[in-house]
Fold this sequence. Notes:
By secondary structure, this protein is mostly helical. It contains 6 helices and no strands.
Amino acid sequence: MLQNAIRSGAIDRLAIGLSGLCLVHCVATAVLLTMLSAAGGMLLDPIFHEAGLFAALLLGTLGLGRGISEHGFMMPAAIGSLGLGTMAGALTLDHGGGEMFYSVLGVLILALGHDLNRRAAI
């Protein structure tokens, strides 16, 4: 079953969806911080971000790695890896505009890598 999901591009679609959820999380956190500091504090818990990055790394490895072996193109994996690195680097920054900017940028780059991977498999 997992092999079928990997071959069909379901992992890439799931990873793109996760990227979208991450994007919504980053924007919602900024909005909630300005409105409700208590709710924003919960969403800014480091474990929340670390778990999200772990899920992105896992899906990225499965989806983009499958792409390399299936269609042989390295570009989607390289772009996705850049996005993952940007997201990981954002975790080292203090919470604020810079961290949010680099998180969103990393998510968008990673989603682009997964989209390119999905298109190359067609």
